[in-house]
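Quick one before lunch.
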Amino acid sequence: MNKANHQPEYAVVVKDLTVQYGNILALQEINLTIAKGDFVGIIGPNGSGKTTLLKSILGLVRPTTGAISVLGMPPREACSQIGYVPQMTNIDRDFPITVGEAVLMGRLVGKAGLFHRYSQDDRIVVQHYLEHLEIAKLVDRQIGQLSGGQLKRVLIARALVSEPQILLLDEPTAGVDAHSSSQIYELLKELNQSITIIIVTHDTMAVSSYLKSIACINQTLYYHGDPNLSSELIMSVYGCPVELIAHGVPHRVLGQHEQGGLRC
Ligand SMILES: Nc1ncnc2c1ncn2[C@@H]1O[C@H](COP(=O)(O)OP(=O)(O)O)[C@@H](O)[C@H]1O
Ligand SMILES: [Mg+2]
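Model of the adenosine-5'-diphosphate complex:
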């Protein structure tokens, strides 16, 4: 087969990736291949390098050693094809901007932002995603006035309006109530019919019900594959057991975690 004539079949290929911040080793020798159309969950404890991995895929963090290819290109060249929903902690809630403006700004990806005039097309796409995420009625609200769940939807809409092929989400359901959280997962499941999704989550309830694969990292990659985890694997990544709901059937597949243990 002449590969040169074909679209790359992988969304992301991470090869021997090591990332250091000064003398802090965040990621070590990560090898990870994510197929197009995957819905992969990245799990691991706090400080295990999950955000660093997403930022590396986005080209925001440079590998210390190793390389990343996104849709067959270096991350920087592929950035217009990637939608990114950052972790909540990075968002300035006091920034004076409305929901409509925040989402519209997502159309600037890969364009000369300062001089860009929004077109009719931009506005039509924005309206479509505002409605799709059920936030159209919030369009004139300041982002600082939104609930956690509403703000997450705004950030997802902003990431989607550039119509990316790959969506990266960093803990999009952290601090969101159970109902909004499952709505977000349902939406992602639907989006996954046409785009590849990579999501960082502590939300192990979602693991078996929605994800097609998981990648467990704690500086190094422990596992990438089927989302039905063994308790041994969870133990080795997190250092303590986690309660899982497998295939949407509520049953405890892992042991109770000890009082005062590590946060899972
Ligand atoms: N900009 C930075 N400068 C220095 N150290 C950082 C920076 N970003 C992350 N780190 C460190 O790298 C490690 C991995 O962080 P991070 O990727 O944010 O983990 P996670 O998202 O899994 O919580 C942590 O030890 C963190 O303190
Ligand atoms: Mg993080």
